[in-house]
């Protein structure tokens, strides 16, 4: 590897706080964007309820988990309670209904891994994907949103990490790099691990919210407003955290043995997850446990080529954070 192992942060690190916070502010969506999304959701609800009176629509993904940058697409889940739901049939029907109401570029992708209908709202220009009965995604969206309310540094760190990942081309699951969802989990886990901790482990606390979805029990403490300033004893700044995040993934994570787990707020071993060898396409080269579907490794998309790309990008970022005179420019230079 070309970069040296680093442990001690540069002395001028806190001069980077202002520029990082400025980047965060420019990425953050404005309030009126939320209002437009709401408006589109209301329209969709009206159309859907005519055909399926008991069905419900939920927002999930970055438009609802509070980690969405300005002008993101919105992800919607149509929850239908029918014994045997033929998703393709419903999606095709839904596409007809939407088209008839003048929504633009309506497309049913019935053979995708997650089948969806895509559309564009001609009034607001918002792009939208609608899937069916992906209720676990709605629940994990709530978990992420609840974590975001505990300490603002989570949202700041995640925006910067997602922006870096998109700029550097390592947020492409079809090319073997990680999803945005995986990056959010990496940030939550990282802040759970700081000493003193910046985030608690909500799934290890008293249960105040519990649902069972697709036979998966999802339970955790969701009264996060009661946690007040949980992270106040830790005074690390955003620049220090960005530095430490990349340092961790570049030089400190044990890729051979460790699994990061937001569910337990700790590191698990590949051994105990039985993720020690390749099964089918799951290679477990970087292991990120899904908080509810615990048999899911969000790193499963990563292959022997893309793991190199990822680790080199982490090292590049760590090196820039340590030595570059202008990290806030260099870090996000397009790939
Ligand atoms: N999701 C999931 N399991 C995955 C990937 C995604 O459950 N392996 C769900 C999560 O609820 C996630 C949502 O799908 O919030 C959208 O995933 P993704 O597109 O990765 O994240 P976004 O937050 O929408 O990010 P972006 O801003 O890049 O659209
Ligand atoms: Mg999305």
Automatic annotation (TrEMBL):
Residue ranges of every copy of the Poly(A) RNA polymerase mitochondrial-like central palm domain listed in the record: 21-149
Residues covered by the PAP-associated domain: 238-296
Cell compartment(s), UniProt: Cytoplasm
Coiled-coil spans in chain: none
Similarity remark: Belongs to the DNA polymerase type-B-like family.
Protein name from the UniProt record: RNA uridylyltransferase
Full-protein residues shown: 437 to 771 of 776
